[in-house]
Amino acid sequence: MHGAGNDFVVIDLISQFLNLKPAHIRFIADRQRGIGCDQVLLVEPPTQPENDFRYRIYNADGSESGQCGNGARCFARFVREKSLTWKRELQVETRNGTMALTVAQDGRINANLGAPIFDTTQIPFQPEDSEDNAEYGLTVAGNTHRIGALSMGNPHAVLTVDSVADAPVSTLGPLIESHPAFPERVNVGFMELVSKNEIRLRVFERGVGETEACGSGACAAAVHGIRRGLLDNAVTVHLPGGKLSVTWSGADNDDVWLAGPTASVFEGVVKLREG
Ligand SMILES: N[C@H](CCC[C@H](N)C(=O)O)C(=O)O
């Protein structure tokens, strides 16, 4: 499956049981030797009866994440296509709590990624200096960059650039992804302001590299722009793989909603060697 080109292998662990280890995840995600994807998503029974499913997210390098916005939308489509539920309002358990997914009559899927988190200890982020107009200075290879830092259930650094086409995604992205100021590493967004309701964005994702789209990254960039007064509350996010929509009231405790396309591409059986 994919959401605007951010692609996933989604595994039903309700009608089957697998004890997947990081080596299995890396094999499945390997685009030459395995199936190939940005993330592997696990569909599991909930641990609490009031919820519908449990949702676990693993990056291509085998690391687990607490959030995947595009993946959540594909998750909602998957469980309905596989007749694991008929509901249109889903409560899904993630590593950080629960998230609401809604499937409209026209098939559009909205994901509630919860309220953004700016508390640096929860991102986690250890800033070199104090926040100034929602930005921090971050020294990378001798140069200081201005970044926004927040969590959408997973950590994000957001840089504002004049042009995403010219942004140093492949060089600066990995240096910030593994910067010591982010003890759990970080997803790195490069945001270009188009208007008060539109941005262009490229994301170097933690544990993957640059992806065609990043749902939580789109939310993090839009929230950062709204917080700095550069964007209105509804933002169209143009990514290399397609368009996502983010809405957030601007109130710190209000939830961030993500909408966008989903697609089911292929279904099959994978043979996992005992790892
Ligand atoms: N690489 C991210 C997880 C996937 C996020 C992205 N695919 C999305 O749609 O939010 C992380 O390690 O936090």
TrEMBL record:
Residue sites binding substrate per the record: N6, Q39, N59, G69, N70, N154, N187, E205, R206, G215, S216
The keyword Nucleotidyltransferase is assigned to this record: no
Domain of life of the organism encoding this protein: Bacteria
Location within or outside the cell: Cytoplasm
Pathway: Amino-acid biosynthesis; L-lysine biosynthesis via DAP pathway; DL-2,6-diaminopimelate from LL-2,6-diaminopimelate: step 1/1
GO molecular-function terms, A-Z: diaminopimelate epimerase activity
InterPro entries listed in its UniProt record: DAP_epimerase_AS (IPR018510), DAP_epimerase_DapF (IPR001653)
Catalytic activity: (2S,6S)-2,6-diaminopimelate = meso-2,6-diaminopimelate
PROSITE patterns: DAP_EPIMERASE (PS01326)
GO CC terms in record: cytosol
Active site residues per record: C68, C214
GO process terms (BP): lysine biosynthetic process via diaminopimelate
Pfam family, one: DAP_epimerase
Principal cellular location given in the protein's record: cytoplasm
This protein's UniProt keywords: Amino-acid biosynthesis, Cytoplasm, Isomerase, Lysine biosynthesis
Positions of the record's site feature: Important for dimerization: F266
EC number(s) reported in the record: 5.1.1.7
Keyword Electron transport belongs to the record: no
Sites annotated Could be important to modulate the pK values of the two catalytic cysteine residues: H156, E205
Similarity remark: Belongs to the diaminopimelate epimerase family.
Described function: Catalyzes the stereoinversion of LL-2,6-diaminopimelate (L,L-DAP) to meso-diaminopimelate (meso-DAP), a precursor of L-lysine and an essential component of the bacterial peptidoglycan.
Subunit details: Homodimer.
Protein known as: Diaminopimelate epimerase
Gene name tied to this protein: dapF
